Amino acid sequence: MRSRYSAFALANGTYLWETTAPRMRKYYPEQEYQDWAVSNQWIKLEILSTPQFNQVEFKAYFKNSEGINEVHHELSTFEKINGKWYYVSGDFIED
Fold this sequence. Notes:
Layout: H1 2-9, H2 13-18, H3 30-38, E1 41-49, E2 55-63, E3 69-81, E4 84-92
């Protein structure tokens, strides 16, 4: 999770796409990752919990393209393939 957050902060859409589970990549185009990363200023990542061994609940704090502070609160699911963790999906949590 931390490496993916860093990839957003560094606007590295390729890394984000490559760390998405291969079967899910069709739902998460590399360019969309890149566009969202570039259009926001990433401020802070807060890991809240790991309810299951393959899940991470987090808040990512960022300033959007209009300069408004926002928080992305998500419960992400990952899967391990050949010893590496990949992002599968996330459920947005409204505060």
